[in-house]
Specification:
By secondary structure, this protein is an alpha/beta fold. It has helices at residues 4-7, 18-30, 41-51, 67-77, 91-99, 112-128, 162-173, 181-189, 197-210, and strands at 10-14, 34-38, 55-59, 82-86, 104-107, 136-139, 142-145, 150-153, 156-157, 178-180, 220-223, 227-230. The chain is built from nine helices and twelve strands. Residues 10-123 form the Response regulatory domain.
Length: 234
């Protein structure tokens, strides 16, 4: 069973395979979640607008509006966490999902118990990472308002996903320290397991948003053989 805080959460499961939807629904309900089901992208987008789920489990391969497009549209609407389901084995396919804003992915065939653990981990992280009231982090022209979950650079709005925002907050709180991908996965995602390429993709996306030249970063630097380090510019 999940903790009470997560038990009240609403999860939207989107998959065109009836058997997959049913299995995922039963495991999530057994863990205490309220579950909505959708078999295609259009229905998923409608249910998201109507029910405002706390998390979406989203199949990559959907009829009509595909999973990547659904994920992109969800990101335009807000910060709902997304766990992508994919039957594709190539890393490039998984990376595309992360680049569209998915928080995590699970490759089919998957363990329903593992999926429930991923869902619980993401929701727990979202609900326990509340900032101190009025807390703002700054580094030169970079400003993160933790109450509003809003980032700006040189006065302009940064289009950050929820996970990108959390990762940048963590880096600003630990300047000058090198972290491995495994450490970042545990500290920011709350996972003791998972594909380290998740971290790599998010770091690349952050560099594209906060670095003047992402190919020559000055803030988010690679520490060869270790991972990444945030170097303040102030």
């Amino acid at each position: 069973m999940v903790m009470d805080a997560e038990a009240a959460a609403r999860v939207l499961v989107v998959d065109d395979d009836t058997s997959v939807r049913d299995v995922v629904r039963r495991y999530l309900q057994r863990a205490g979640y309220a579950v909505e089901l959708a078999g295609d992208g259009e229905t998923a987008l409608r249910l998201h607008a109507e029910r405002k789920p706390d998390l979406v489990v989203l199949d990559l391969m959907l009829p009509g509006v595909g999973g990547l497009e659904v994920c992109r549209r969800l990101r335009e609407r807000g910060e709902v966490p997304v766990v992508m389901l994919t039957a594709l084995g190539e890393e490039s396919d998984r990376v595309v999902g992360l680049e569209q804003g998915a928080d995590d992915y699970v490759v089919k065939p998957f363990s329903p118990r593992e999926l429930v653990l991923r869902v619980a981990s993401i929701l727990r992280r979202a609900r326990t990472s509340q900032p101190a009231e009025g807390e703002v982090l700054t580094d030169g022209a970079l400003r993160l308002d933790l109450d509003a979950r809003r980032g700006t650079l040189d006065g302009g709005e940064l289009a950050l996903t929820g996970r990108e925002f959390d990762l940048l907050v963590f880096l600003l709180r630990h300047p000058g320290r090198a972290f491995s991908r495994a450490e970042l996965l545990e500290q920011v995602w709350g996972w003791s397991f998972g594909d380290h390429s998740t971290v790599t993709v998010h770091m690349r996306r952050l560099r594209e948003k906060v670095e003047p030249d992402p190919a020559r970063p000055v803030r988010i630097n690679t520490v060869w053989g270790v991972g990444y380090r945030y170097d303040p510019v102030r």
